[in-house]
Write a structure and sequence with these properties.
Number of strands: 7
Radius of gyration: 23 Å
Number of helices: 6
Structural class: alpha+beta
Strand content: 25-35%
Number of domains: 1
Largest sheet: 7 strands, antiparallel
Order of helices and strands: EEEEHHHHEEEHH
Shape: globular
Length: about 220
């Protein structure tokens, strides 16, 4: 055995939480199995809306990009080796599910702090800024996002009712400089994401008018 394999290294997709102030990584959540499909939509932001007189296309800002995907969580493999995977034995998929749910709500400590401020008579309480979430799907797609919907379907359980198989549906909305501003850490990451798209577009194979059966434009 040489250890050499022709099997390609499987790159995982997932979410990374960073501090909006320092950019330091606070948590990494990788998808156990990459989604088989990734649905994307881009809503154009242009001058002139529906029902108004048509104009030449003039952009008001970056397109509003949304992603949706479905991931599968399964603890079956871990449970085959209980001595190496005590967390899965004790709690099944609860830790992974809890990590995902933590992305869409404040912590208990933050809620207590907000309540303490309100009880002390503070008139205006600033909303709590959550860590910045990055959606990573290969090195070509690293984009700041907001989770707009999280749906979890638990499909199988162990004898203690710990979930051992679950399906997670995620809907994400990309955050652009329109949302965050250019000075925000996330704004800089969006600009890098947009620039990377432009560089990839340049590499797209070109063609000629003859492809359409046209010799020249009128």
């Amino acid at each position: 055995m040489t250890g050499f394999t022709r099997s390609p290294k499987l790159i995982k997709a997932g979410l990374v939480l960073i501090s909006p102030e320092t950019g330091s990584i606070e948590r990494i959540i990788s998808l156990q199995y990459n989604s088989e499909t990734l649905t994307r939509s881009l809503a154009v932001q242009a001058v002139g809306g529906q029902g108004e007189r048509s104009h030449a296309l003039r952009f008001k800002g970056p397109a509003i990009e949304s992603f949706s995907l479905e991931a599968v969580l399964d603890a079956t493999d871990q449970l085959q080796f209980p001595d190496r995977n005590r967390s899965a034995v004790d709690a099944g998929l609860f830790p992974q599910i809890a990590a995902l749910e933590a992305l869409v709500q404040p912590t208990s400590a933050q809620l207590r702090f907000q309540d303490a401020l309100a009880s002390s008579g503070t008139l205006e309480i600033a909303p709590m800024e959550a860590p910045l979430t990055l959606f990573i799907w290969s090195r070509h797609r690293i984009v700041p996002v907001r989770i707009s919907e999280l749906s979890i379907t638990e499909e199988a359980f162990d004898p203690n009712l710990n979930p051992i198989r679950a399906k997670v549906s995620l809907s994400l909305r990309a955050l652009s400089v329109d949302d965050l501003g250019f000075a925000h850490r996330g704004g800089g990451l969006f600009m890098a994401y947009l620039a990377a798209k432009e560089q990839l577009a340049v590499r797209s194979p070109g063609t000629t008018l003859s492809t359409f059966g046209v010799g020249s434009l009128p």
